Amino acid sequence: MRSCYFSDLEGIIEFEYLEPKTTKEACSLLSQHQEKAKIIAGGTKLLASMKQREINPQYLINLKSIPNLEYVNYDDEEGLKIGALTTLFEISQSSLVNDKATILVEAVQQRTPVMNRTRWAYYMATIGGHLSHPVYSADIAPTLIILGAKAVVEGVKGWKTVALEDFFDKTGVPTFQNDEVLTEIRIPKQSAEMGLVYMKSSSSPDTHALNVAVLLQLDAKHVNIEELKIVAGGIAPYPLEAHGAEGIMKGNQIDNDLIEETAHAAAKEVGEGCDPETQGRAKELIEEAIRQAVDRAIGEFALGY
Amino acid sequence: MEIAKKILKVKVNGRPYELLIKPKTTLLQLLRNDLGLTGVKQACMDNSCGACTVIVDQMAVKACSVLALQVNGREVTTVEGLASRDGKLHPLQQAFLDYHAFQCGFCTPGKLMSAKAMLDENPHPNEEEIRRDMEGNLCRCTGYTQYIDAIKAVAQKKEGVK
Fold it and tell me: For testing the chain A interface, which of B6, B8, B67 should be mutated: the one with the most A CBs within 10 Å?
């Protein structure tokens, strides 16, 4: 909600602007000031929340003062590594991300929340910031989950990696502690024969957009479905994987009825508690995504004839 | 509690500045109040309208929603820095004139800066791309046709714009 016209930062209390030089320093500042402190990266969400008086931090900790948190690199062993301060713009422009994690770029380019759709936020918003806010993370988290991505989280005592599927709690907020900072996203090397699809439904003032990411892999003989992952965003507050529905297709041959049955079960699973209309939309979207994933998975093989 | 002011080093329209500012100063306040660059317009203040759009290192950003300290060490261009030093208008400015692309003109500086950033990134966008990329800039006079034509005319020039 808009608090008033011509709202500015004038009315809020002054804050101190802290510029740590290392991640460790940032973590100790966070641990020292606790809830009085907020992290600023791109600032697209933070400044809007401050203007709307949702938060009023006394300390802003600028992560951009830490060198080397903006990067994209790749090696065959560890896969793709994206620094948490890499902007959505840099991700879209990166030939490495386009090559190694195409569906992440697709998801970034289709993001819808009003504020982040426009050009300026695309330039400013960082992947780390994007993943830290429930509304925005819904867009790209499903693709990161099917890619098997891990988040690197640093704290005062050291660092750890968290699988993206364990990254969010039930309200969609990252599960790490107050004095921890997300520093990197790691995406393992993908097998060439996987069918990966990201799809998003359109939104209207009455209905918000749903999105789904699907991974489908056939076995060595290209007959049976070896691996299937269906992760939906924008339905529950956090990205949800349809584990039960995935089991319906695994180990079986590609079959029209089976795709429909799976989509139906998946929509029911991820849309539990939602109205039938939303579940219906989810089913359509998931079905379409599975079909495309099948095409992509057998596409390479078919060309080999 | 006395809050420490911070030193900000920034280049605006090619001129280097070193200023001592309060951390909560927005880029918009800095440009309008401290540097007198009133071509940067103040309107919605919640990044809805795009009137305050300026370019920071080739990126179009909304000055009302960026802290001045966030542009430390960077280069900012406002509409005042768009024309060349000898007064020759930027091709976008000329096209906006040629196509009568404004009525009251309040939204024009922001639109020019958004359009420049778009063309710097993609020199030959089609109409759909222009409309998509310009959707962050509102016009309360509802002039949503001529400026598209103006940008299209510039985008169709073969050599591109610098």
Answer: B67
- The architecture in CATH of the region B91-156 reads Orthogonal Bundle (1.10)
| Average pLDDT over all residues of chain A | 87
Give alpha helix (H) positions in A35-148. Answer: 44-51, 88-93, 95-100, 102-109, 114-117, 119-124, 127-131, 134-146
Q: Are strands B75-77 and A159-163 parallel, antiparallel or unpaired?
A: unpaired
Report ipTM for this prediction. Answer: 0.86
Please tell me chain A's helix, strand, coil percentages from 3-state DSSP, rounded to the nearest 5.
40, 25, 35
HEC sequence for A226-256? EEEEEEEECCCCCCEECHHHHHHHCCCECCH
Give the global pTM. Answer: 0.88
DSSP state of A33: H
Window 106-125 of B: residues touching A by CB (8 A cutoff) are 114, 117-118
Q: How far lies A25's CA from each of A28, A162, A180, B63, in Å?
A: 5, 21, 11, 29
pLDDT for B36 equals 96
Q: Of A121, A155, A187, which residue is a domain's last?
A: A187
Range of the domain at A270: 195-300
Give the pLDDT confidence score for residue A4 in this predicted structure: 46
